[in-house]
Design brief:
The chain is an alpha/beta fold. The chain folds into 4 domains: 249 residues, Response regulator (Rossmann fold); 192 residues, Rossmann fold, CATH 3.40.50; 51 residues, no CATH class; 265 residues, Rhopdopsin 7-helix transmembrane proteins. β18 and β19 form a beta hairpin.
């Protein structure tokens, strides 16, 4: 059993490369210079994306060269941490006696060079260890690769899956969001150590909605990944009322400066002139490189018609992007970073945690203690601007590396000492493979001791045997985070929201300001601590507004502009009677029925109840008049009762007089039913009591008029009217006429009775509390019948007006009925033209006026004789006149 290896550094110096492998590589013109191999009984493969080769331009005039131009390359120094994270995870597992005891993990890491051909090449080399491109041939000692971690972008992951999927080897993508692009045949072998893609897009949309940003710019790489991003995100933006101000598609290939300048020239004007404050950046290194060149060309060379790059923007970056300021430094000068162009940027980032052991691991790294790390010397030379090749000639610009340089001395834009989100994903992927392998071996050795594990090492173990375990695995890593995959092979976790804070010393920090939690209730997945966000210094308002135009204030609604996106609109004032209580409302709303708009039309005010109240002047006045006329009626009735035996009282049918006076008294009192808030009882009594009592009063007047006529006619000898003289005719007239009205009212109450009603619409700002007549036809039947009786009484009295005065009160009745009819004829149009308490006041006034007309015209002359001229109230006077 070989001794358990404890560290990738410095034990990697003891690495012995098998002679067979060396022989296999010597004759290969495509020898890959950047790889890192650490031996072990079981290997984990890795495909990183650190080094970018600028491919030569092909003119098809000669065969393209097979050699790599070693000088035509660039290294993304931040991405070197991804390689170190894999080595650190393997080292940590090898030191942990509880995971794979007495089994040493190894690794073999290549670079994809962000090139399709080299991705296929290095993936095959991982599987077959052949330095020549010979599929299914393994050169040298057999090594067991149980899984491969990579790649950073969707294209690399897809190219790797084309090969790894054929052999069912577990593949862990640590930066790609698009498992949908993986062939369904291979999808069961593909795992993603970052959360669900849909949650990522949802987080971006919720972030925009949180700050009210409706007009945003989009920068996405010009490849399949960018196409997918725009297709999904633009649909979500549209569904949530957000528009894209512009869409830029940076080239994904590193091309010549002339082509790059031409590409920028075609699209730069829209980008620079856009009012969009919020700009979303999707992609990998090329997106930041493109943006850095735009900044460089506009600020340094001023090649475009702007004096300064618009710095007052909020950049929103996706989880695939780590802020590659080393690329900006290389292509657009570090001055861009010092100017704080990206200060205040917000990022949806892969969740990570600080790992103290990883910091210690980084502090131990020395480029001269590792022989087979094909990446570290390139990284060290670029990071510290020195040469690892010893030379006697060096100066300040070209010096020898000493090995005492420390990574923590590098500014954060070049290399971060804390574990980034992508590195944390790689770290979790290594642990997922280790735990699955541990469970697999443990299930085969339940009755064996730990010392027997070495006998169970499967030299020819098939990687596909781990899939069933990986799909259900759940464990806590060394820093306490739970790691498990959902049914789609994606990490069941959330995202962090970070805020970029830059400094003048070429450094920065990413402050965690929020969390995107998939376990939260729908619509509340995003939480933001707004107080911790530092915005860009050039912003005039914080949080800023990113809108096509100013918000429509409350009281206005949006008005679409023809030919513009729906986020660009005008504002129109709400129509009368409608409101908008929020900014940017699509349409105005009506207030609830019991409320009405305020003057500014941005809110509703509760309506006040409108009815004829006893507490107001009009109600008090009408109530006073009602009581006054009631008292007058009572006094007249008392006077007639006291002088009931006098000739003038007897001569005018004493019983009919009492009936008329009592009915007039009740008419006055019935007016009180109309004062105060209507209720069910008062609504039933108002019109019916008024109709019946008035019909009795008018019937009594009619009976008195007919009595006068009959008495006059019967005074002649042999008159046929003599048999009608007496009380029976008068009683019959009053009773029959009243019964008709009582019948109408009874039918009204049984068929469609009046009821309390709230009229919300007739008066602005008020709710009319009224009695709805129920059946309007029956209401006017009551009034019509009263009118008919009044017309008959008026006609009979008018015809009898010239009878002798001693027996004749027809003149007074004629005049009283003229007043009565005049009042009620004018009542109808006035009643119909008013609303609310004024309508009620009109009816009360009509009742009082008509009743007072009858009382005054008929009884004042008699009271005058009874009280003031008793000398005329004698039989002799009446007989003499006769």
């Amino acid at each position: 059993m070989p001794a358990r290896q404890t560290s990738a550094y410095p034990q990697a110096t003891l690495m012995v490369v098998e002679e067979d492998n060396i022989k296999c590589s010597r004759s290969d013109p495509l020898h890959i210079p950047h790889e890192w191999y650490q031996p072990g009984e079981i290997l984990i493969g890795g495909i990183a994306s650190c080094i970018f080769y600028r491919s030569p331009k092909y003119f098809f005039k000669k065969a393209p060269t097979q050699e790599w131009n070693k000088d035509n390359k660039d290294m993304m120094m931040k991405f070197y941490q991804h390689i170190l994270a894999l080595a650190f995870a393997v080292d940590e597992i090898n030191e942990n006696a509880e995971i794979l005891p007495n089994i040493t993990l190894g690794f073999h890491i290549y670079d994809s060079y962000s090139n399709e051909r080299m991705t296929y090449r290095t993936t095959l080399d991982l599987l077959f260890k052949s330095q020549r491109f010979v599929p299914n041939y393994k050169c040298g000692i057999q090594r067991n690769v149980i899984g491969v971690i990579g790649g950073l972008d969707a294209d690399t992951s897809s190219h790797m899956a084309d090969t790894l999927g054929l052999y069912k080897i577990p593949q862990f993508s640590y930066g790609s969001f698009e498992p949908a692009r993986i062939d369904q045949t291979y999808s069961t072998s593909f795992y993603c150590t970052i959360p669900n893609e849909a949650l990522h897009y949802q987080g971006i949309v919720q972030l925009l909605l949180y700050f009210g940003w409706k007009w945003v710019g989009l920068i996405a790489t010009d490849n399949d990944g960018g196409d997918h991003f725009l297709k999904v995100l633009e649909s979500l933006l549209s569904q949530n009322g957000i528009c894209s101000a512009f869409t830029e598609r940076p080239i994904t290939k590193l091309i010549h400066a002339g082509e790059f300048f031409h590409d920028i020239s075609k699209r730069i004007s829209v980008f620079l002139e856009s009012k969009a404050i919020s700009v979303i950046i999707y992609g990998e290194a090329t997106s930041i490189i493109w943006l850095g060149n735009v900044i460089f060309l506009t600020t340094v060379y001023q090649l475009f018609p702007v004096s300064k790059f618009p710095t007052g923007k909020v950049w929103i970056t996706t989880a695939q992007i780590e802020f590659l300021y080393d690329a900006i430094q290389r292509w657009s000068h570090m001055q861009t970073f010092r100017d704080g162009v990206f200060h205040g940027a917000l990022s949806i980032t892969i969740h990570t945690k600080k790992h103290p052991g990883f910091l210690e691991f980084l502090q131990m790294i020395n480029p001269f203690e590792v022989r087979r790390d094909g990446f570290i010397k390139v990284f060290w030379e670029e990071a510290f601007q020195c040469s690892t090749k010893k030379t006697l000639y060096f100066n300040e610009m070209h010096k020898n590396c000493t090995g005492v340089e420390k990574l923590e001395s590098l500014p954060a834009p070049l290399f971060e000492m804390s574990m980034t989100g992508h590195s944390y994903s790689i770290y979790n992927a290594v642990y997922a493979l280790a735990h699955a392998l541990h469970i697999r071996l443990a299930s085969r050795s339940r009755h064996r001791t730990l010392e027997d594990w070495s006998r169970l090492i499967p030299l020819h173990m098939e990687p596909w045997q781990l899939h069933s375990l990986l799909q259900t695995i759940s464990f806590n890593n060394s820093i306490g985070d739970n790691v498990k995959f959902n049914k789609h092979g994606e990490l069941a976790a959330g995202f962090d929201v970070t805020n970029l804070v830059t400094f003048q010393n070429d450094s920065y920090v990413q402050v965690k300001v929020g969390r995107l939690d998939p376990q939260a209730p729908p619509g509340k997945e995003l939480t933001i601590n707004e107080d911790q966000i530092q915005w860009h210094r050039d912003l005039t308002q914080v949080p800023p507004l990113s809108l096509c135009n100013d918000n429509c204030p409350p009281g206005y609604s949006k008005k679409r502009k023809e030919g513009k996106k729906f986020c660009c609109y005008g504002c129109s004032e709400c129509p009368e009677g409608m409101i908008s209580d929020k900014a940017d409302m699509d349409s105005c709303l009506s207030c609830p029925k019991d409320q009405y708009p305020n003057k500014a039309q941005h809110g509703c005010i509760p309506k006040i109840l409108h009815f004829l109240s006893i507490d107001e002047l009009l109600g008090v006045t009408l109530a006073f008049l009602t009581i006054f006329f009631s008292l007058v009626s009572a006094l007249v009735l008392g006077t007639f009762s006291k002088h009931q035996d006098t000739p003038i009282v007897k001569a005018n049918n004493r019983s009919l007089t009492y009936v008329l006076l009592i009915s007039l008294l009740l008419c006055f009192l019935s007016s009180l039913l109309f004062i105060g808030r209507p209720n069910k009882v008062t609504c039933l009594l108002q019109q019916t009591a008024f109709g019946i009592i008035f019909s009795i009063a008018v019937s009594s007047v009619l009976a008195k008029t007919i009595t006068v006529v009959i008495v006059f006619k019967s005074s002649k000898p042999g008159s046929i009217f003599q048999k009608w003289v007496g009380g029976k005719l008068e009683n019959a007239i009053v009773l029959s006429c009243s019964l008709v009205q009582i019948g109408i009212c009874t039918f009204w109450l049984s068929a469609s009775p009046p009821f309390p009603n709230l009229d919300m619409h007739s008066l602005t700002g008020e709710i009319i509390v009224e009695c709805n007549e129920g059946s309007t036809i029956l209401f006017y039947c009551v009034l019509g019948y009263l009118g008919l009786l009044a017309i008959i009484s008026f006609t009979v009295a008018f015809l009898a007006r010239k009878l002798p005065d001693s027996f004749n009160e027809a003149k007074f009745i004629t005049f009283s009925m003229l007043v009565f009819c005049s009042v009620w004829i004018s009542f109808v149009p006035t009643y119909l033209s008013t609303r609310g308490k004024h309508m009620v006041a009109v009816e009360i006034f009509s009742i009082l006026a008509s009743s007072a007309g009858l009382l005054g015209c008929i009884f004042i002359p008699k009271c005058y004789i009874i009280l003031l001229r008793p000398d005329l109230n004698k039989r002799e006077k009446i007989i003499r006149k006769l």
